[in-house]
Amino acid sequence: MRTTTLQIAILAWATAFFSVGPTLKGQESAAKYTIVIHGGAGGDPTAWSQEYQQQRRDGLTTALDLGVRLLSDKQAALDVVEQVVRSMEDNPTFNAGRGCVLNQQGHHELDASIMDGRNLNCGAVASVTKCKHPITLARLVMTETRHVLLMGAGADELGSIHQLEQAEADYFRTERQRLRWQKWLDKQQKSAGPVLGEGRVPYLGTVGCVVLDQHGNLAAGTSTGGLMGKRWGRVGDSPVIGAGNYADNGTCAVSGTGIGEEFIRRSVASDIAARMRYAGHELPTAAAATIATLPDNCGGIIAVDAQGNAVMEFNTPGMSRAFANSSGERSVLLGREDASAS
Amino acid sequence: MRTTTLQIAILAWATAFFSVGPTLKGQESAAKYTIVIHGGAGGDPTAWSQEYQQQRRDGLTTALDLGVRLLSDKQAALDVVEQVVRSMEDNPTFNAGRGCVLNQQGHHELDASIMDGRNLNCGAVASVTKCKHPITLARLVMTETRHVLLMGAGADELGSIHQLEQAEADYFRTERQRLRWQKWLDKQQKSAGPVLGEGRVPYLGTVGCVVLDQHGNLAAGTSTGGLMGKRWGRVGDSPVIGAGNYADNGTCAVSGTGIGEEFIRRSVASDIAARMRYAGHELPTAAAATIATLPDNCGGIIAVDAQGNAVMEFNTPGMSRAFANSSGERSVLLGREDASAS
Questions:
Q1: Mind listing the pLDDT tens digit for each residue in A311-335?
Q2: How close, in Å, is residue A11 to chain B by CA atoms?
Q3: Long-range contacts made by residues A154-158, C-beta under 8 angstroms, separation at least 24?
Q4: CB-count exposure of residue B193 (10 Å: 0-12, 13-18, 19+)
Q5: What value, to the nearest 5°, has the Cα angle with vertex A231 and ends B220 and A40?
Q6: The sheet that has A245-247: what strands, in order across it?
Q7: B120 and chain A: CB distance < 8 Å anywhere?
Q8: Average pLDDT over residues B213-226
């Protein structure tokens, strides 16, 4: 009933054998690639100004075009993921790197993680403040230490030793986010009592990228400023491998966005892979089943499998997202529009 | 071929109906319980002094006896896990709470997490220094905030607001660990160059507890001081839900110990549950298969399922561990002895 390990091994050997054949004959351009990105699943895009909607679409388009260019050029999945996430970290429209949301004290604290589908190598940072590109610092943790997750000043110190590009607080804290934070603070101060539970706060604009490259490898990256007005040293799912980020060539690459706590308790990203690995589900079925376990209006995920199948699944009013592949399919979307519409 | 949600619902209803029946007739003592604990999988117990071996056995016995007493008394799984882990945090023999290993600067930084199998509620803290019982602070995160993972000073602040018992540095840093740290430091200073990769350091004495209570509920808790000489704000698997700790009534409760990075990249704890949930494996098969994916000499796990089956699986020279259930079965073990021998 279930495929045995031996059957899988024979299939893998046969696939490798026959796919190497054509490559040796110089038909390299037959190799496929797929890229999917997201810019967060918070807020209702139909309530956004036309201008802000356009900023989001422009940011997604810039990142997607960069990814497609690198993938066409046969770049490695891990490099593409890093470069595409850096592009979104640089863009103040998204809640990652420059333009991130601010915590209770009006400060910035950034989380990121990256994972290599070839070997499960991964790196992550939580609550860093100095490195301009947290996704690059996460990659440094993966390649330059024996660790997976570093937090706070220690992680920043590693970035400084390796001379990663640093930035001052004013770089990260944009005027738009200062105003949003001030508005949030005024509201908090008018409400009775201390804000132990933090009330209902928007979870906006975490970014992520998943890729199948022309070499058949998967990778995933996620970067965020967390949630507006956060305190207590709260860490969400973005730097938690298996919750908000995961990649394994044998199954899929996943990046999540939403209420991180719900992603952590369900190991959302690795749960999608586990449904493929153990229940034999295809990626779309697996992803839909995992998202169906989340509370309503909780978040979403992007994913890609080793055949280049892409999934963009969410249970909120919208998820800023974009997709492209080597067959020329392409979409850039914000709300609940049909993925085939754009 | 696969059981449908409807079938499961009918089965759950029928089980609840028929199990409530006898209880109402006063046959409450028929309910089963199981407890499994560990005190870390590092080091080779055959190389330890008789005195240290006895300290380990005594610590495990004290914690196990406490757990058995509470479970016989029909206490809830979550309360039992918290109390048993507190007992091991108080015991300087284990690397958790008092007697934890020290980081590069000779300071203590504690991690812990707890999870409720009834509803996937969970809480975790990373790198806290003030709270005498990190497992209780982790439970506070679960019950008193909307978050799952809090780190550093913010987490300590939460404990202080809720008037959890605090302790000074001298309480955590025992003479034995100071001496071990000094020895480690001398060795580091003699070696050439900066210690970027941290070299080979012992991973000793993380503690954990998993329980099936008489009400049929599962819970898991894990607490640790991390690894000797750690730096960079490194966070291991103990506070990462799904990696070093997990509980779900539908599958199992798991607590891990070992090289945390390997546990994080494989989502070890939730992977065992996923093999049960999606591949239909029994707990022993699932746990053995997951441990088989780890590198040699990496660590181990304890686990219990809803039927009270217990597993203590490791791929190191030893794992300090103990087990007891309502049928009177019992063992307290350190090395590779057969579980039936003690």
A1: 999 999 999 999 999 999 999 999 9
A2: 20
A3: A154/B231, A154/B232, A154/B233, A154/B234, A155/A125, A155/A126, A155/A127, A155/A128, A155/A131, A155/B232, A155/B233, A156/A128, A156/A129, A156/A130, A156/A131, A157/B232, A158/B232
A4: exposed
A5: 85
A6: A245-247, A252-258, A299-305, A310-314
A7: yes
A8: 96
- pLDDT one-digit tens code per residue, B270-311: 999 999 999 999 999 999 999 999 999 999 999 999 999 999
Does residue B189 have a pLDDT over 70?
yes
Q: Which amino acid, one-letter code, is at B236?
A: G
Compute φ and ψ for B186, nearest 5 degrees: -55, -40
Contacts of B115 (CB under 8 A, 6+ apart): A265, B121, B122, B219, B220, B221, B241, B245, B246, B247, B253
Residues 6+ apart with CB under 8 A from B107: B129, B169
Residue type at position B47? A
pLDDT band for position A186 (cuts 50, 70, 90): confident
Tell whether A137 is within 8 A of chain B (Cβ).
no
Q: Which of A246-250, B99-103, B142-146 has the lowest mean pLDDT?
A: B99-103
Q: Please write the tens of the pLDDT for every residue from A239-296.
A: 999 999 999 999 999 999 999 999 999 999 999 999 999 999 999 999 999 999 999 9
Contact check, Cβ <8 Å, B149/A234: yes
With CA atoms as reference, report the closest residue to B303 among B204, B208, B207: B208
DSSP state of B338: -
Q: CB–CB of A147 and B265 under 8 A?
A: no
Of A267, A212, A213, nearest in space to A245 by CA = A267
Reply yes or no on whether the pLDDT at B26 is more than 60. no
Q: What residues of chain A lie within 8 A of the CB of B265, using their CB? A: 115, 120-122, 148, 241
- The answer to whether A215 and A74 are in contact (CB under 8 A) is yes
B62 is catalytic: no
User: Which residues on B lie below 8 Å from A260 (Cβ)?
Assistant: 148
For A294, A303, B112, B278, the CA distances from A273, given in Å and listed in that order, are 16, 10, 26, 11
| Own/partner long-range contacts of B285-291 (Cβ < 8 Å, ≥24 apart) | B286/B252, B287/B254, B287/B311, B287/B313, B288/B313, B290/B266, B291/B315
CA distance A224 to A40: 9
